[in-house]
Amino acid sequence: MSLSVNQPSRRAFLRHTGLGLGGVALSSMLYRDLLADNGTAPSGLTHFAPRAKSVIWLFMIGGASHLESFDPKPALNQYAGKAFVETPYGNVLDSPFLENERVVAFDPNNGFVRKTCYPLQVGFKKRGESGLEISDWWPHVGDCADDLCLIRSMWTEDSNHGAQLQFHTGRHRIDGFFPTIGAWATYGLGSLNDNLPEFVVMGTPLADCCGGQEAHRANYLGPQYDGIPLQVDPENSMPYLAPEQEVFAEEQQQQFGLLEQLNQFTAEQHPDDQAIRARIRAYELAFRMQTTVPEVVDLQQETETTRRAYGLDQEETKTFGQQMLTARRLVERGVRFVQVYHGNNGGAGNWDAHGNLKSNHTKMCRQVDQPIGALLKDLKQRGLLDETLVVWATEFGRTPGTQGSNGRDHHPYGFTVWMAGGGIKGGIAHGATDELGFHAVENRHYVTDVHATVLHQLGLDARRLVIPGRQRLERDFGHPIHEIMA
To answer: What's the pTM value of the predicted model, to 2 decimals?
Structure first.
């Protein structure tokens, strides 16, 4: 086979035919194949028997109040208006003295601040047979109480919104950028679906002030393990996924056929070149994704009953409902890690209720409660919850004391996240804060304990995910929370 000097190169063909997902996605698939062929990538085999196949990671940007969600404290009503002093070590109502790890702040939150107890802004009640206490702002998630594991003893270092990045990497932003939990999961595991990315991201990411897209990137693991952005729009679901305008399917197939011939010609000239084989497989995968990805986000394939359950018929729940329904469709098709952001406002985040907490959280909870509840119920009904680990998180909680007249400040000393499915016990609360919800006082967990637990349920030992030449701190690995595992 001979080529004219006027014929375009493979690189030019790929750029103009729209065969790729864009640079990041295509390099991800190509690079994994290359490393696997060279025997230098993770094998895709788990370190021990996994309890989960996939993760859906939900992150509320800005700091949702643990007190008005999943750790209600009636003592706040009892002591309402009573002055106390917030410190990194305790307050007048939760003595004795509690030793606390360093808290790095760019604001005065970790100083000695005189405040008054701010009463709960919403009611709460026991939910399900387990009797977990959950606020009235979360009725749909509350219906799933017997599937939830509330971890009420989280703490973190950053008292400002760099804690958003810290929750995803385990490191304070002054330390630099590090791989995220989604990147570690996809680094350690092989793909379950040859037609879709392994790590998908939906929703508007963190603002640049608080970590930006570094909250779903792989950093030194390499861009091949970055999260791939996805929009719930069949016409524009991924960057560079669709062919160029006026390129018909038949024409694209002919272009792909010629591209394949070019690659095969090179393969014949270099029969031992593993990179050529990997490149051919990556191109074929990118071609298949042009059909697969738009199909995944075509929610009209779902029944009207299902779409209503997720809140697609209501303006306030439509956007997040679409993302939750798409998340279910992604894990159903074998995507390993689905990360969904909620609350981006171009700054610290919409959950950051320094004032007007009641109106703020009423609105924010209403946007996500029904879609999340529908996701949990849908996964369970389809038999997918046992193999899908759902994580709900936020960077920190809110203070027991009032800020201004009707808000709560940042609170890194004790807050709540929850997990459901994926081999996690349901209907339990693990850990505890004191009577005001100020300090985590029982079974305290730094954020990387959540990471270690997620990896453990996927069958991975965080300590065995070692990169030559990269030294990790002890706290980077975290400790799996074995007490919550079924």
So the answer is: 0.85
